[in-house]
Amino acid sequence: MALTVNVVSADQQVWSGEATTVIARTTEGEIGILPGHEPLLAILAGGEVRITQTGGRRFTANAEEGFISVQNDTVTVVARAAELVS
Amino acid sequence: MGAQLRVYRQKIRSAQTTKKITRAMELISASRIQKAQQRVAASTPYARAVTQAVSAVAAYSNVEHPLTTEKAKVERAAVVIFASDRGLAGAFSASAIKEAEELTTLLRGQGKQVVHYLVGRKAVGYFSFRKRDYARSWTGSTDQPVFATAKEIGDELVSAFEREAAEGGVDEIHIVYNRFVSMVTQTPEVVRLLPLEVVEGVEPPGEHEVLPLYEFEPDPDAVLDALLPVYIESRIYNAMLQSAASEHAARQKAMKSASDNADTLIRDYTRLANNARQSEITQQISEIVGGADALALAK
Predict the structure, then answer these.
(1) B218·A27 Cβ contact <8 A
(2) Which CATH number fits the domain that encloses residue A58?
(3) What is the domain extent for residue B16?
(4) How many CB atoms lie within 10 A of CB B168?
(5) Which of A7, A86, B234, B292 has the fewest CB neighbours in a 10 Å radius?
């Protein structure tokens, strides 16, 4: 089972694909999301979101002033100016 | 050359010059529609994600947030009109303004004061020509909207919504824009932005249904606080993009019919000019023949 991850910015879909883990920093602290996570809606504090793809490749997305939502193993990272860092 | 013929030739030349302009505008618009449509499509995932998130908070939590609850007494309502900066786009601006006027009459009928926010020079022109007041206007980028403008409009609206009506705030926000249906159809649309009306994609839970355990961080109130400006911005940005695509489509259609009309005019005047030239020649011939006859008789 894998997570379906979408990273979206105001004017385009930045990235979309399957991942095993998503780590983000919300206003409450760091949160790691694995498949089967309960529905969640959180405000991101730091812009950094770390995503591990199904193949094991890792990369970081920058999502300043954004939020993250989880529902039915679908993770959506939304920010006005979301972008992939590496 | 006869006077009549000269007039016809002048008219043909004038129609030809006009046709060059309208043809060029038609081609420019045609090439921009595609780009505008792509931008609408590209912004859709964001709009969808934001809408779903807002709907989730609104449906799956019991927060009483000022942005989602209707006030008992609505004193002032804001109407945002999205028109175009330039004309020559058929009924594009007129239809948005007309729709807004109908809405204004409706709201006034309900005893509400109406405050207008205008986007596009045509809307501003309409209001200043009639010496009517408007709260604020944005011009200069209706054919290629940028997100920064949407953010500015959003900030202004949210801050007006948060003020009390007595201090110049508003209790309701409506937007009027042209929705891009297809290349030939663009329909003016009215949407109430605030208090929140549209809950898309999420069914409101039934009375005895168990809510899925949604976790909000830090808490539903704070999440809604942070989400709503984003939601407003994204709706406004979407309206601006839709409106831009509609503007190009409307202009292309208007300019196409203008070019076609110019063609008809040129054809008609060419016929008339030929007619005039021919009758001139006929007259000259009959004058010569008549003259020659008269000379022959005089001999």
Answers:
(1) yes
(2) 2.60.15.10
(3) 3-24+255-298
(4) 11
(5) A86
How far apart are the C-alpha atoms of B26 and B135, rounded to whole Å? 34
Asked whether the beta carbons of residue B52 and residue A69 sit closer than 8 angstroms, the reply is yes
- CA neighbor of B12 nearest in space, from B189, B228, B202, B271: B271
B161-206 pLDDT per residue, tens: 888 777 878 888 999 999 999 888 899 999 888 777 655 544 554 5
Interface predicted TM-score (ipTM) of this complex, two decimals: 0.84
**Gap between the Cα atoms of A26 and A23, Å rounded:** 10
Lowest mean pLDDT of A2-11, B51-60, B101-110, name the range: B51-60
Q: What is the pTM of this model?
A: 0.84
Residue B208 lies in a domain: no
| Overall number of domains in chain B | 2
Query: Which of A13, A41, A71 lies nearest to residue B45, judging by beta carbons?
Result: A13
| B46 → closest Cβ in A9, A26, A40 | A9
Beta-carbon contacts below 8 Å between A and B? 85
Q: Tell if the CB–CB gap between B147 and A8 is shorter than 8 Å.
A: no
Instruction: Report the interhelical angle of B220-298 vs B3-60 (nearest 10°).
Output: 170
Q: Which of B43, B57, B216 sits opposite A11 (nearest CB)?
A: B43
Whether residue A67 and residue B223 make contact (CB cut-off 8 A), yes or no, is yes
